[in-house]
Design goal:
Blueprint (H helix, E strand, L loop, with lengths): L5 H5 L3 E6 L7 E7 L4 E6 L7 H14 L8 E4 L3 E5 L8 H15 L17 E4 L2 E4 L6 H19 L5 H12 L1 H4 L7 E3 L8 E3 L5 E3 L5 E3 L1 H10 L5 H11 L10 H16 L3 H13 L3
Helix pairs in contact: 3-8, 4-5, 4-9, 5-10, 7-9, 9-10
Amino acid sequence: MIPDGLADILGAAVTAANAVSGGDICQAHRLRLDDGRTAFLKTRPGAPPDFFHTEAAGLEKLGAAGGAPVPQVLAVTDDALVLEWIEPGRPTPEAAEAFGAALAVTHACHPPHFGGDGDGSGSGSGHIGSLRMPNRPVDSWPELYAEQRIGPALKAAFDLGRIEVRDAAFVKRVTGLLDVLAGPVESPALLHGDLWSGNVHWSAAGPAYLIDPAVQGGHRETDLAMLALFGAPHLERIVAAYDAAFPLAEGWRSRVALHQLHPVLVHAALFGGGYGQQAGSLARTALGGR
């Protein structure tokens, strides 16, 4: 369970390991180390060699932005990621407002390109959940969203029989109209990239931390749409504080369905169920009768 060589990297032996709840893909444990520290361990049997390294690099990028906080990376190997332990707490309205303002600071960090930034930390590809995600640098968000987000996720879902032909046709229509549907042109923003409510860790100390990122240069409305997708606590307070710090472009609410389309297609590819139909519905909403 504890990967070989981890103690040498941490500079401390593991004295106790207790399973904790986590996501659907990785196994999670709370570690106690003989130097008194408590840490969080993620492992995934058979993970691709770059899986945890890409996540660690993404956390460090987000942390360097000086906005929403992230756990400190203590160790990373091909088999595991160890982070500082952040004692969980409950979301409060005050913490939600602080998180919204902090996320705005993160997004105000502008990578040189959409997608990866070409520095070797996931610039060619990355992961969203267990799905491989292209992450090459490009010059526009419509190009990124069509070719490296919606396109691959739709193909994966369709090849697995998890989206019907009619729904897939509406999704394809969206990709052909992205220049029109995208709204005002914006510079690349440093995104978490998979910011559903479960990837916001509310701490006992107060701040909300970003975890499990799929970091990229993207459209900042994407992170906010993801927060809405599965109902982040105190969402309106988060958004109001964000908008006060970094005003959103006119009409952003009308584009929520567009930005939710990619993560729902990812869920269709990974889990099936009704996500394929939901993707079709989101595509029709995004098209607005076009």
